[in-house]
Amino acid sequence: MRAGFFPAAAEPGILARRKSREGPSDRTMTQPSAASRAMIERLISFDTTSRDSNLALIDFVRDHLARHGIASETVPSEDGCKANLFATIGPTDRAGVVLSGHTDVVPVDGQPWDSDPFRPVERDGRLYGRGTCDMKSFVAVCLALVPEMVAANPRLPIHLAFSYDEEVGCRGVRRLIDLLVRRGFRAQACIVGEPTGMRVVVGHKGKKSWKCVVHGHEAHSSLTHLGANAVEAAAEVVTRLKAMARRFRAEGPFDPMFEPPYTSVHTGTIHGGTALNIVPLRCEFDFEFRHLPGDDPDALFAEIKDFAEREVLPEMRAVRPDAGFDWQELSWIPGLNTREDDEVVAFAKTLTGANAVSKVAFGTEAGLFQMAGIPTIVCGPGSIEQAHKPNEFIALDQVAQCEAMLRRMIRRVSAVPA
Question: In whole angstroms, how far apart are CA 287 and each of 36, 214, 231, 324?
Answer without folding.
Answer: 40, 14, 15, 18
